[in-house]
Amino acid sequence: MKKNHLYIIGGIIAILIIIGIFSPDAEKAAFNNTAKDVQIITNTDSVLLAPDITETSITPSKFYSVVSVVDGDTIKLNMDGKTETFRLIGIDTPETVDPRKDVQCFGVEASSKAKELLSGKRVRIETDATQGTYDKYNRLLGYIYREDGLFYNKYMIEQGYAHEYTYNTAYKYQTGFKNAQKEAQANKAGLWSPSTCNGDTTKTSTTNSTQTNNADSCTIKGNIGSSKEKIFHVVGCGSYNKTVIDESKGEKWFCSEKEAIDAGWRKALNCN
């Protein structure tokens, strides 16, 4: 009998243990613990998959200073003490700085207009979720507005300094920009004029190849490179037509090679 009692008592204890393990409260506790483990793993994955670049914080209502104008569709901004390259969404201006290409038709004019509008100015940035924050060259993407309200991206298209440009997916102002281009075409403005590019900016700029200073005989271009080296280019140099002189940067025109050398410039290596 004592053994039977022991078996009965042992069975009751076993049943109580089983009930305790599979009670609703116990199941809930087990689920919560599992969920916590999953959350920890998810957070760890997020850190591991974070992009290599540190995204710059953009405040929509804040104005940033323009450090320099690269060309009509690319500028550099001072963003909280850091210089960021900024590519404008929805526009494409003729090339002036791409070393793989000749200066394109109306490129000099577009670049000059950009400098006129933006040099020394402050601009507000508007981003566009449809295009992302950075492009494949790690340039910030967006639209810019001057402090006086000028919508720079659209203005450049309206005045014929840029083509409307869609990269892969439609952007926020695509319809408005396309309409602005149609208006510029109808008005034969800027690059749409038959006397400039007639809409075809892929051809070499005639403005740049014939660019001279006020003295017709002073055709030597004194360029300052990215490394601050002073190099002059004479007619016949392989890079002559690609070189644009920006006197605001200290670049100069010279009337003779001796004048250029005396001023501290050296002759380009690709000259005949």
TrEMBL record:
<keyword id="KW-0472">Membrane</keyword>
<keyword id="KW-0255">Endonuclease</keyword>
<dbReference type="InterPro" id="IPR035437">
    <property type="entry name" value="SNase_OB-fold_sf"/>
</dbReference>
<dbReference type="InterPro" id="IPR016071">
    <property type="entry name" value="Staphylococal_nuclease_OB-fold"/>
</dbReference>
<dbReference type="GO" id="GO:0016787">
    <property type="term" value="F:hydrolase activity"/>
</dbReference>
<dbReference type="InterPro" id="IPR002071">
    <property type="entry name" value="Thermonucl_AS"/>
</dbReference>
<feature type="transmembrane region" description="Helical">
    <location>
        <begin position="6"/>
        <end position="23"/>
    </location>
</feature>
<keyword id="KW-1133">Transmembrane helix</keyword>
<keyword id="KW-0378">Hydrolase</keyword>
<feature type="domain" description="TNase-like">
    <location>
        <begin position="66"/>
        <end position="194"/>
    </location>
</feature>
<keyword id="KW-0540">Nuclease</keyword>
<protein>
    <submittedName>
        <fullName>Micrococcal nuclease-like protein</fullName>
    </submittedName>
</protein>
<dbReference type="Pfam" id="PF00565">
    <property type="entry name" value="SNase"/>
</dbReference>
<dbReference type="GO" id="GO:0004519">
    <property type="term" value="F:endonuclease activity"/>
</dbReference>
<dbReference type="GO" id="GO:0003676">
    <property type="term" value="F:nucleic acid binding"/>
</dbReference>
<keyword id="KW-0812">Transmembrane</keyword>
